[in-house]
Amino acid sequence: MVVSLSSLKSMMADARALADDLGVVTRDLTDRELTRFGRAFERQFVRQYTTREIRDIYLRHQGEALLGAMIAKEQMDAEIDSEQPAPNKIGGPIPIEAAYLGIGDNWEDINGIYAGAQSSWSTGTPQNWIHSGTSLMGGTAGNPVRIGENAVHVIFAIGSLHPSPKIESVQFTIDGKTKPKLLTFFSQRYMPGAPRAVKELDNCYILNKDKTVLAKVFIGHAFGEPSDYVIDFPYLIGVSYIKEPALRLQDPATLPGSVYNVVLTT
């Protein structure tokens, strides 16, 4: 059942307090926007997932998703209009697409190396994941990406789409500050046939205008020598808010850059 309007208003008050703690500027959603938010969230992130683990992650972080909507409304000076926004309104909450962070066509497209090809990841040393040097971004390897004016992302968790996940840790550097590594234990805890590999964050990462983001993964030597090709497909669990013009794009190759101002190189 969709969360009631009164519950969403209470959730928005809590989100407003969290915004004050984080020092971010927000704008309250109208009743109509809150209703759209609740309906879109329920349909895409609760009913959509049969895996209870992921569904529960979304439910635990619904307030932070709402905070993302409030940040997006202020940042983009436009109305929140769910998954199919009218012209120049804000699409959201919607799933985080790989291209919004400059990774590639999809989460399986690691640095432009497709699932059927050899991966460029080596073992025993941190490897770039979210960075300016992907084939999609065409910038400098190891440099962070910059979030544009027309995007806000709220990250709740990291998962792997590979049937035999190998990533042992993920580490983010946001605005030049390296965060503590996140131990995933994907290979130890999520064997083939087990529930999907997921690492939930204690505190979400909110990525809004002009934030720079670099993420690296680490895969141990147990999966091969550094010269071997190792494949895994990490992905982000959370929500995005994107200004409507960029949502018309079906080809991710046209997304990066200043035209749509969603993700840029540094």
Q: Element order, helices and strands?
A: HHHHEEEEEEEHEEEHE
Shape: globular
Q: How many DSSP E strands? A: 11
The helix count comes to 6
Percent range for β-strand residues:
15-25%
Percent helix, as a range, is 10-25%
Determine the N-to-C terminus distance.
43 Å
User: Major β-sheet, in short?
Assistant: 7 strands, antiparallel
When the domains are counted, the total is 1
Average of the residue pLDDT scores: 91
What is the radius of gyration computed over CA atoms, rounded to a whole number of angstroms?
18 Å
Low confidence ranges: none
Helix/strand/pairing class, anyone? alpha+beta
Briefly characterize the structure.
The protein is built from 6 helices and 11 strands. The protein is an alpha+beta fold and 266 residues long.
Q: What features would you describe in this structure?
A:
The protein is of the alpha+beta class and 266 residues long. The chain has one domain (5-265). Helices cover 25% and strands 23% of the residues. The protein contains six helices and eleven strands. It has helices at 5-22, 31-46, 52-60, 62-76, 186-189, 244-247, and strands at residues 90-94, 127-130, 145-147, 151-160, 169-174, 177-178, 182-183, 198-207, 212-218, 234-243, 263-265. Strands 2, 3, 5, 6, 7, 9 and 11 form a seven-stranded antiparallel β-sheet that branches. Strand 5 and strand 6 (177-178) form a beta hairpin. Helix 1 (5-22) packs across helix 4. The longest helix is centred in the N-terminal third of the chain and has 18 residues, at 5-22. The radius of gyration is 18 Å and the shape is globular. The N and C termini lie far apart (43 Å). The model has no long low-confidence stretch (mean pLDDT 91).
